[in-house]
Each structure stands twice: as C-alpha cells, then as structure tokens.
C-alpha cells in the first residue's frame, strides 16, 4: 500500500514547495494525507461490511448500480495515466544512466531501453494477488528511502549559492490550480485497498486503520523532507521533475538508477487493479 502511494509524485514535491512556499506546501501535504486517510478508512468500513472479497466495482453495483461503469472507467483511467507517467519518467532516466555508466552504446536508445524495461516488469503484472508483489514493493520503498538520504547528503555537502531565493509564502498564481491535484495524487493508493483487505490474514478494521495511518505518516515523512531540502538547495530554479536539476555526477546517477527501480516495481501495482 505504501509503495502504491509513493511513486512518481515525489519528484514533483520540490516544485510544489517552490510554487506554494514552504508553509502552504507542508499544510497542503498534511491535508491531502488526512483526506486520503479518511477515504481509505471509508473503503475499509465498506469492505468490512460487505465481506472479505469486496471490490470497488462490487460496491458500486450494490449501492449505485448506475455508476458501476463510471467507477470502473475512473479506476482504469487513473491507473492508466499513472502507469504512463512511470514509462515517461523511465524513458527520461534510463538512457542517462546507461550513457553515464557505459558511454555511448547501441542500447542507449530510449525506445530500446523502454522495451527492455517492460520486458522485465511485464511478468510481474500478471500476478493475481498483490501479496506476490510485496518483496518488489519493499525494494521500491527502500530505493525511495535512499533517494531521500541522497538528497540530504547532497544538501549537506553542497554550498548553497547566496542568490538562492526561498519563500515561506508565495503570491497565488495560475500554477496553484494545477498543483492541488499533485498533492492529492501523491497519496492515491485507494484502488488497491480492497485487494489488500482481501489478502490480509487479520483484516479487522482496527488492524487496517493502523496500516492506513502508517502508510500516510510514512509518505509524509518522505515527501516533506524531500521537497523541502531540494527547495532549499535549488530555490526558484527547480524544474517540475527535480532530477532534471541534478548535475551529472555519481550521486545523481545512483538516484536516477534507484528511481528507475521505483518505477519498475510501481508499474505492476497500477496495472493490477486496472485489469
């Protein structure tokens, strides 16, 4: 569940800090996490009421039959969009990693590398149960943790220029509207809560609530430091994808490689509920 929540959205947090300022960004992150928790708990209560094998589609059929198609299509559209974003990010990162490590080779073509990436991740998409993905998901969470540590290390070892501008608050602008969705998107793991509820041995409501609280809190303590530290490091020069700001050094190559791993283990988690 944590790996479903934490994906490509983390890369946008430094840009969100630049757009909104430090204080509003922290507040909006916490509020988005709170709403995500409320939604997940409501889903768990519904699943507990209707049985272990309940799905979102079945809930729609029971309580709002006319909305079943809309619910199914919404889940598919969300998962399809997120999966596509993973492929786009991988297509950007993987060629840079290959060129940095091996130099110019025949396999540094983005299309070729994307096909290789899909060849490795594709088989994991055929698992019927999310439980089969727990080890790959754990690797993804560890990779994200090391990405955050690498950010802290870079900030500690880098002398920040005096011209870096950091704001606690910013003047509202048109970018505010597009940013709200990114805050919410960063906590979306709701499509998998029913499968997790079904597969857990102890899926009681108190146990599920503890899981939800843990996931939301873990996401918060990863998102906020990652966004804040990169903002302090690059200020108003931050790009939408923070990795584009990184210099082409060893640490940046490691971060890019780790995020390719994150994308690889995240992809099946989005494909599974959209089938």
UniProtKB/TrEMBL annotation:
GO terms for cellular component: vacuolar membrane. This is Vacuolar amino acid transporter 6. Belongs to the amino acid/polyamine transporter 2 family. The chain crosses the membrane at residues 20-45, 66-89, 109-128, 135-156, 211-234, 246-269. The keyword DNA damage does not apply. It comes from Nosema bombycis (strain CQ1 / CVCC 102059). Keywords: Amino-acid transport, Membrane, Transmembrane, Transmembrane helix, Transport, Vacuole. The lineage of its organism: Eukaryota, Fungi, Fungi incertae sedis, Microsporidia, Nosematidae. InterPro entries: AA_transpt_TM. The keyword Transmembrane applies. GO terms for molecular function: L-arginine transmembrane transporter activity; L-glutamate transmembrane transporter activity; L-histidine transmembrane transporter activity; L-lysine transmembrane transporter activity; L-serine transmembrane transporter activity; L-tyrosine transmembrane transporter activity. It is a multi-pass membrane protein. It is found in: Vacuole membrane. Residues 1-273 form the Amino acid transporter transmembrane domain.
């Amino acid at each position: 569940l944590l790996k479903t929540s934490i994906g490509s959205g983390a890369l946008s947090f430094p840009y969100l800090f630049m757009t909104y300022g430090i204080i509003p960004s922290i507040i909006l992150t916490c509020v988005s996490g709170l709403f995500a928790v409320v939604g997940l708990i409501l889903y768990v209560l519904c699943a507990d009421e209707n049985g272990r094998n309940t799905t979102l589609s079945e809930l729609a059929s029971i309580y709002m039959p006319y909305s079943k198609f809309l619910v199914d299509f919404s889940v598919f559209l969300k998962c399809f969009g997120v999966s596509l974003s993973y492929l786009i990010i991988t297509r950007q990162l993987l060629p840079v990693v290959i060129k940095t490590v091996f130099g110019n080779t025949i396999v540094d073509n983005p299309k070729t590398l994307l096909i290789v990436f899909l060849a490795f991740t594709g088989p994991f998409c055929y698992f019927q149960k999310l439980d089969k993905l727990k080890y790959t998901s754990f690797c993804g969470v560890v990779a994200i943790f090391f990405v955050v540590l690498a950010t802290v290390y870079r900030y500690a070892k880098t002398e920040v220029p005096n011209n870096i501008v950091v704001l606690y608050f910013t003047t509202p602008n048109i970018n505010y509207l597009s940013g709200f969705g990114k805050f919410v998107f960063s906590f979306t793991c709701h499509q998998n809560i029913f499968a997790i509820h079904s597969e857990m041995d102890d899926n009681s409501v108190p146990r599920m609530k503890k899981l939800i609280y843990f996931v939301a809190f873990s996401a918060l303590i990863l998102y906020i430091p990652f966004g804040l530290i990169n903002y302090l490091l690059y200020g108003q020069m931050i790009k939408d994808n923070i990795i584009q700001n990184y210099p082409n050094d060893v640490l940046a190559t490691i971060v890019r490689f780790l995020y390719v791993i994150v994308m690889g283990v995240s992809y099946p988690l989005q494909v599974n509920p959209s089938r």
